[in-house]
Amino acid sequence: GAVVSQHPSWVICKSGTSVKIECRSLDFQATTMFWYRQFPKQSLMLMATSNEGSKATYEQGVEKDKFLINHASLTLSTLTVTSAHPEDSSFYICSASRTGMTEAFFGQGTRLTVV
Amino acid sequence: GIQVEQSPPDLILQEGANSTLRCNFSDSVNNLQWFHQNPWGQLINLFYIPSGTKQNGRLSATTVATERYSLLYISSSQTTDSGVYFCAVSNMEYGNKLVFGAGTILRVKS
User: Fold this and answer.
1) Which of B81, B88, B1 lies closest to A38, judged by CA?
2) Which of A91, A102, A105 faces B31 most closely, judged by CB atoms?
3) What does chain A look like in DSSP terms, one character per residue?
């Protein structure tokens, strides 16, 4: 299967600071990447879809100015949580796919704690 | 959008027992995947099975697309099978975005 790598695996930051999470496709070119958020004991909820070279599409209720997504190349998408607050503490996980690929492959996830 | 329901929500098994997890979905799909989320949060791909039957060792899965459900079978369960099992589906109408069910929490006791 395809390999997707996410970095960092975990991060602790202070309230008011920004945090950047990277999602890389290691062995294929990802035309589309998806960002999910998972709160404890809950399922994964899609936050946004990013297509290489274009603006991300956000799901209803997700603040696009708070969660900045950049998909500048076919192997890298980044999620920046701006002005983080404790309620942003969560598990963030990305998946990547390319045109014609219907099976999704996920990164290892990033556990964000805002103190 | 598509609705995905998984059952049971929780399951406790004795080591060596068999189990069946179910996933119902509300619309036609072009993708259905089963995942195991390990204690560190990583999603392990178990099956990509929009239709038909597949087997991989002690695990097998069947999707009946016309009746909009999928089943995951775990035989001779082991303690390492513990964790959360998710079913996720997508269709072209929804932009191929995966929609996850709420998951089944499986605990295998030794």
Assistant:
1) B88
2) A102
3) ---EEEE-SEEEE-TT--EEEEEEESSS--SEEEEEEE-TTS--EEEEEEETTS--EEPTT--TTTEEEEEEETTEEEEEE-S--GGG-EEEEEEEE-TT--S-EE---EEEEE-
Residues linked to residue B7 through DSSP beta bridges, in sequence order: B22
How far, in Å, CA of B87 to CA of B46, rounded?
10
Cβ contact A44:B86 at 8 Å: yes
Q: What type of residue is B70?
A: S
Please state, as a whole number, how many other Cβ atoms lie within 10 Å of the Cβ of residue B54. Answer: 14
Q: Map residue B68 onto helix, strand or coil.
A: coil
Q: Report pLDDT digits (tens) over B39-94.
A: 889 999 999 999 999 999 999 999 999 999 999 999 999 999 999 999 999 988 88
Per residue in A48-73, pLDDT (tens digit) is 999 888 889 999 999 999 999 998 89
B interface mutation test: which of A3, A41, A103, A112 has the most B CBs within 10 A? A103
Q: Provide the residue type at B105 as one letter.
A: I
